[in-house]
Protein 1
Amino acid sequence: MYYDGTMRTIESHSLTSPPKHRSRILDAAWETRARTRAAGAYGLRFKIVLRLAVLTAFLAGAAACGRGEGSPTKNHVEIPEAKVTVVKVEPTPIRDVLLLPGVAEALHDVTLASDREGRVEWIGPREGQRVKEGELLAKIDVAALQTALDRYKAAHELAEIVAERRKSLHEGMIVSQEEMEKAETERMLALHNVREARINFEQGFVRSPIDGVVNRLEVDPGEFVRRGQAVLEIVAVDRMRINVDVPEMDVRYLKVWQNARVTVAAFPGEHWDGLVDFVAFKADPATKTFKARVVVDNTDGRMRPGMIAHVSFLRRLVPDAVVAPLFSIVDKGGERILFVEEDGTARARTVTTGVIENHVVQIVDGLNPGDNLIVTGQHNVEDGMRVSTR
């Protein structure tokens, strides 16, 4: 220490001093050292006591603040009431609707093929043109068939004349019975040839079997077609059919002539009313679903074959259901929760849902008629929180 170095310095000086002064110097030095050490110990104790006092005062102040003491004004923060909107729950009818996707198809979709081979001489309609049942659409090798028909007609006329002459000669005993019968047979064969030629001739004319629209022309005039080759396609779009695949658990709700509602993605907000005209009795072995067909009127022709459609079937009607908006349900940890207002306090209800229609859902358990259901602000409240209704 500093004081020990001082004593060593004083002692070294006292050794060089006269003897009569040496003891006096040492006594004074030792007294100074004792006082210095006492003063240092006191200062250290003072610092320790001061620090303990400051720490005690700090802890006492913190405890006083926690109890709300030490100030004439309390520091407690009031939590404001949450503002919510409520609606009174009333029994409401709700429909259990089965919604299935499907594809729109023309009620009649016909591809006309050539009945015989030959050259396409003429095609009348254009693609997109409406045609009537029985209207002439194309001619295939008609000129050659007309020539063959005329030839067989001439042969038949000659056979008729020969047969009549042989009959007269037989009556005059000029020709035998055998010659007369041979002439009659040739007349009959000529008649059959005329009928066959007329059928072949008619097959050269392609006519429309239905009222519809020409959707596609498969050949052009001048092309050679073979028997069975497609010539053109006609679709009847005045009535449309929508085919849907019905799950096994829902097919029991469908019956023929049951009403159905059809919507098309291309026309949002619009719908077509139709009827079920077919429900399959056998399931598809691959999908385990049953095919059902809905027919709707489409006189304006807006719905087109191939459009994606959705068909709604009514399974059942729940007349007095307790319902809630879908957006009022809060999902907390996998639980569906609704909040109701009771005497200015929010109360949480765990609910069980049922039928869903549009934006509302049936509440099977957890909500009762007459409850004040919170429909806005439900995400900002907890069970037991004070709320004010707007």
Note: The longest helix spans residues 19-66.
Protein 2
Amino acid sequence: MINRLWIFLLAPVCCWSQILTGTIVDASANQPLETVSVYFDNTTVGTTTNENGEFSITYTDAIQSSLVISYLGFEKIIINDYRDKEHIAIALKPSSIALDEVNLDYDDGLTRKQKLRLFRKEFLGTSKIAKSCKILNEDDLILRYDKENRVLSASAKAPIKIENKALQYEIDYDIIDFELSFKYANIPTNSFTKNRLTYYGTTFYKDLKKSNKKSTIKKRERAFKGSVQHFMRALFNENLKGEGYWIFYGRFRVNEWAYFTVGDLEDSSFKQVTLNKKVTILYDKDIQSSIEVNTDKFYVDRFGNYAPIVGVFFNGYMGSQRVGDSVPSDYNLDSDSQIVNDDFLEGNWNVVSVEKSSKEPPFSLMVDSFKNAQFTFNSDKTFNLQTTAANSFFQMLTSAINQSTWSLSKINENSLVSIANGENIQMEIFVSVDGSDVFFTIGKQGEPSYFLLKVVKA
């Protein structure tokens, strides 16, 4: 994925599908170009031009990436300001490849076999998932080694095609920059100690035949959980703890919000983040990473995109992730769904309708009370439940609840609001969103007693 482009920090995000059409021609001959790749960077959303050089591509607010126009032998075009356009016309210029890049074999101290081995390891990764990946067009790779500075660089004559068998993706990766430096290099013994790796490019994902198998879905979810993308989404939603992340400073677990600050930006889909010290990240009480920020602030959106990429450094598990471990930025996102977070919940919610479980008949006494109820989630984390219906049992319940506080967490992908008075849980509310409809389920997960309330924000 290329570095996030700053225009999106200033552009409000639409919440409906949009269609962008265009025509692409050869700039020198003014003739239409067929089969030009048109895609949103680091996503599964893309198309190609027809015989008239025409394309049509649909996108939603789940797409926060640059639009990439790519055709072999021509200069690549990256477009950022497509959201205010309905149609674009592009004239592609032939690319000028230096003559010395035609020859793929350089007398630079490393054999091509050695360079390929180093490139595969650092580009694809070393995890079990990454080891299932295969580069299908290695002959297009141009690899150079600088003996004096101990730096391996890579470019390519065409986008690198990667088959990820474990995650069932075919990935087109168009390298913009790849530079791998070594602290130590002993060429005769093939001993190399990495110093720093920098790489970026544009990426397009296609699902393979077995992408809908349960085993593939589980593998994709495992690859996503604990990743930089997952962490950034949790950071945006200010729900690190709910998503399974613990933050440590030194040897001690700390309050994450004493180190991270997350603030809204006016008229922007991004939030501003600051981190005042290097901290350790523990995911699921097991997987360890660290993050260090060498910039005053960075920006993140709800899809896990962040900018600038250079200046935000990960080590440990997150730092070891490579292209072979990655899923697209639109992974597991329903563009029309609302992410349930603290900001979403805060305010007053009125009940529109009530359904109840057929079990536990005493709860039927509360149906009318819930039909006329209002739930209030205050910004100071206090909670209030009121009803206009007279019900002594409900009033007894609310007398305890209304002295409680609320907190949001995730349990098996469900959004759970716990209403607690000290350590005593008074009520649990599972929050779900179906299109524009919002539902509160009152009850404990796995138990038969519940009320299903359709609610609207007052």
Note: Residues 1-15, 98-104 have pLDDT under 50 and may be disordered.
Protein 3
Amino acid sequence: MDRKSLFLIVLACALFAGCAQIGSISGGNKDDIAPRIINSSIKQNERNLKAQVFTFEFDERITLNPAKESVVLVPSDATAETSVSGKTLTITWDKPWKENTTYSLFMNGVVKDFHEGNDSLYTYIFSSGPDLDSSTIKVNVNEAFKNSPAQKITVGLFESMSEQSPRYFARTDKFGMANINAIKAGNYVLKAFEDANNNLTIDSLEKQGFDTTFRAILKGSIDSANLYLSTPRGADKIKNKKFIPPGLLALHVPVGKQNPILFNGKLLPEDRIFKEKDSMILAVAPIQEDKFFLVIGNDTINQLVNKTGKTTPIRLALNATSDENSDQVIFDANDFISTIDQGKSRVISMPDSAIVPVQISFSKQRIQLKSLSSWSGNFFFECDSNALVGYSGNTNSRKLRMAFSIKSERELGVLHLKVSKEGSYVMFLVKDGKSSRQLAFNGSSITVPRLSPGKYDIQLILDTNQNGEWDPVDPRRNIQPERVLYFPEATSIRANWEVEKTIELD
């Protein structure tokens, strides 16, 4: 068996049972019983075993499943070759056993009955020496940011900090739990990783988590541990590309990979780039051809543009952050704005259609309406035809009438949050399953105004490097992901009410 052939098995096995563990999988109305082992050349918990060929006799004729990962040896010191004759399975190992080593042999669906195809999981423990190693570690693996169980994750004990392949390993179940059994006493580093390519090796871009120090496994001990899984920052890629006619390209670009940007072979100037954390919007119009290409770092992006896309008129959409600021309302356009005709643009109140004196300005794709702090109610932002001109040269060919509302302070609530320890934090307020606010602060308190009434879940990031965002694992510097704290009791915000919330940290 190749080392990359391992999975679908190691969990859910009681390794020290008195005989081979036999389960069953439903195979239909006629026969839903998996083949049973009635005789074998090795015994459960056998010691001083030297044989390189194992035979297993079943109670009925069997066929061999082709998948190599159906046979797994832990530690993986040898590779298996399997064959079937009638009722007998033969496993031949290509290397001798290491001295005084306890092995766990897992056979998951390696055979099935000849007629119905039922298969099962069989487990054997044996030792090449006089003793059986009996130490166990139970590991709970969670996603670092979501704090939810991480399923189908390889958990391993490594013999050094730099080692990338485990000596012992298991795989997490749906609850994020993995049990590693039959461990030899010694010092190990505990690591978990999402082995997407099944090579039983931690690749630098794979989701992972680890202990930062050695862990002493004592003879016969039963230990437990928690690991938190995240994807290293360097693994993040350019993704979620979306062309917005007539002239914008929106995409996710990891921080650190955002410069330089070449558009059709020429450097794209800064006034055509809008950056917001790990998101970018690029002004690529006017587009002369039916396609264009961008080069961002080592990535090349090709984009087709049809004729309709080139002629799309300017449109507006209300920015979701507008509720947070009583003095400003923001609209996003589908092009960078080059000019606004102030004489053709206005804000009117409803229902009396009175013109509201506001300051109208723009920056790249955003139009800001300012000086609104003394107003509340329902409004329209009107732009007569051709009032807006974009970098593409296109205009709003028809009159735009965009509705928006401004809530008064009496319609909204205020949250005063206190934390028991001073520090650097990033707070997420989540309403109806969606992030409503993200705020970074230092110290032990923060006030959040202008919150719509409702129930909010609070997530708190311990921002150890004080960069105002969550940082994942950094294996090169042996740094753990920043902790994310979730609080089960939702905070209720009421209109015209100030709520105080205290969070006690351990």
Note: Residues 1-29 have pLDDT under 50 and may be disordered.
Protein 4
Amino acid sequence: MASAFNNTGIATSVAMAVAIHNIPEGIAVALPLLYGTGDRRKAFGWARSPVWQSRWASWWAC
């Protein structure tokens, strides 16, 4: 059984996939807020919130 501890290629692939996934997720959160409120700071702040939530959830699950 291959694991990320034994094969850094798998770990790198998963890390890149998660990083690439965060870009459209942030856009999907930010654009409606930007057009709805017109406030770039608020849209940017809320677009960053899923990133921190997923980090908190992964930390808490350990």
Note: The chain has a mean pLDDT of 79.
